[in-house]
Amino acid sequence: MSERAPHARRRGPALGPKTARTAARAALGLALVSGCPATPAADAGHAEAAKSKPTPEPGSGPRDSAGPEFVAAPASGDVVEIVTRERERAAAEGRLLLVYVGASWCEPCEHFHAAVDDGTLDAAFPTLRLLEFDLDRDRDRLAAAGYSSRMIPLFVAPGPDGRAGPRRTEGGIKGPEAVEHLRPRLEALVRAATADQN
């Protein structure tokens, strides 16, 4: 007589190996694509550890080299007025302005910042200017101007009136592939926003 190993009690239908693999891949895909929600995790302790270079202040003049650049939005003031002023300045300098919303606790945001700072994106976005807002500091005033989202980083092509236009992309994946995940969506947004301005 052979002894049978005791079996665990099943709580639902058994999944075959193929179904289990598909479910595992779907769960992993959701985890990777989820990016950063537009609210910080309970432990936002690495806010102080953000390692980004200081960003130029609005009106500080054009960047010396071609490539994307961040311009820090003022800590106060009407978003529509700030965006309108910066959009006009960018156009006068031959640059395209997008509104960028990120946070120090957002991993895809950190990867994107690093890629801008080290020149990785210079060839892809030679004339891009990003008016940078901090979600934690600016959430309410951004929402009043239509710049709200479920996920960050958020990139929005502003309308001529300074309010958020319909062209946008939001969210990203965590990890070292974050920038390559953002790049094609950002390229499409830049193409569409450029066409809108012409």
Straight-line N-to-C gap = 84 Å
Percent range for β-strand residues: 15-25%
Strand segment tally: 7
Mean pLDDT metric: 80
User: Helices and strands, in N-to-C order?
Assistant: HEEHEHEHEEEH
Structural class: alpha/beta
Biggest sheet record: 5 strands, mixed
pLDDT < 50 runs, ≥5 residues? 1-15, 19-34, 43-63
Tell me the strand order in the biggest sheet. 2-4-3-6-7
Helical fraction equals 25-40%
Total helical segments = 5
Radius of gyration from the CA trace?
21 Å
The shape, in one word, is: globular
Secondary structure elements and pairings:
Elements: H1 17-33, E1 36-37, E2 69-72, H2 79-92, E3 96-102, H3 107-117, E4 128-134, H4 135-144, E5 151-152, E6 154-158, E7 164-170, H5 178-197
Parallel strand pairs: 2-4, 3-4
Antiparallel strand pairs: 1-5, 3-6, 6-7
What brief labels describe this structure?
globular; alpha/beta; two-stranded antiparallel sheet; 198 residues; 5 helices; five-stranded mixed sheet
Model description:
- The protein has 198 residues and is an alpha/beta fold.
- Helices cover 36% and strands 17% of the residues.
- It is built from five helices and seven strands, in the order H-E-E-H-E-H-E-H-E-E-E-H.
- Strands 2-4-3-6-7 form a five-stranded mixed sheet, with helices on both faces.
Q: Concise description?
A:
The chain is of the alpha/beta class and 198 residues long. The protein has helices at residues 17-33, 79-92, 107-117, 135-144, 178-197, and strands at residues 36-37, 69-72, 96-102, 128-134, 151-152, 154-158, 164-170.
